[in-house]
Amino acid sequence: MTILNVTPDSFYAGSRTPRVAEIERRIGEAVEAGCSIIDVGGYSSRSGAEVVPPEEEWRRVAEGVGAVRRIAPRTAVSVDTFRASVAERAVGEFGPLIVNDISAGELDGRMLPVVARLGVPYIAMHMKGDPQTMQSLTAYERDITAEVCAYFEGRIGAMLAAGIRKEHIVLDPGFGFAKTLDQNYELLGGLHRIAALGFPVLAGVSRKSMIYKLLGTTPDEALAGTVALGWECLRQGATILRVHDTREAVETVRIFEAFGRNVRRQEA
Question: Active-site residue among 60, 242, 264, 265?
């Protein structure tokens, strides 16, 4: 999954594509590199991000999704939003797509019933609070993986009760969202336990602070760390890697799959 940030303030400056020419160039590069999904976001979810009015978020999302539909009509699209109105308008204007919600339906009470009515795939992420408050909410009563698993069990129940089909649900543990550096690595070590819940898992570790803060560098210097963590996420059962750098992620997946085939042959 390639990140398409139609924003001026995402945490990684290299991913910002607020103008049409930049959007179109990034889409073309991602498709050529072999992406499976393009994730369009019009509201930065970085810690402390400014609130974006719904109409401005929609304008950005419509610009991004419209560009994908023009340039790469066969490529799957997800919309990174926690607002049901944005998801609803996107599907109404551009047809079926994936809804990628950082709040698992908790920031907008209409989200789950709207997704159920639309009949589209839904990515539910673990987070406490919202982008403005999440990093002040990093206290967990027990081991973080157990808490995230329990959270997902509750949200899966809510999704199914709202009418979202089981096969449409994807789980995202929310690396970097309401988690300290150490908690991110503890959660990474337990990612297989989230995969064991029986739903596809999306891992979003690309160029995040769990890499560059650990190494004392910047997001610009976090590509090698992203590749390393991507491999580990795949090893523990992640189904989707959400990334800024498509070619490197595609190559990681291809090498991982070749390695897995060889291991299976040896075991047979």
Answer: 242
Two tokens at 82? Answer: 């926690």
Angle (nearest 5°) at CA 153 between 150 and 159: 145
Domain ranges for the chain: 2-267
Catalytic residue status for 208: yes
User: The whole model's pTM is what?
Assistant: 0.93
Residue 242 known to be catalytic: yes
Write down the CATH number for the domain with range 2-267: 3.20.20.20
Q: How far apart are CA 264 and CA 268, in angstroms?
A: 6
Set 46, 89, 128, 208: catalytic member: 208
pLDDT by position in tens, the chain (length 268): 999 999 875 654 565 566 788 899 999 999 999 999 999 999 887 666 678 899 999 999 999 999 999 999 999 999 999 999 999 999 999 999 999 999 999 999 999 999 999 999 999 999 998 887 888 888 898 799 999 999 999 999 999 999 999 999 999 999 999 999 999 999 999 999 999 999 999 999 999 999 999 999 999 999 999 999 999 999 999 999 999 999 999 999 999 999 999 999 999 8
> What residues are paired with 261 via a beta bridge?
none
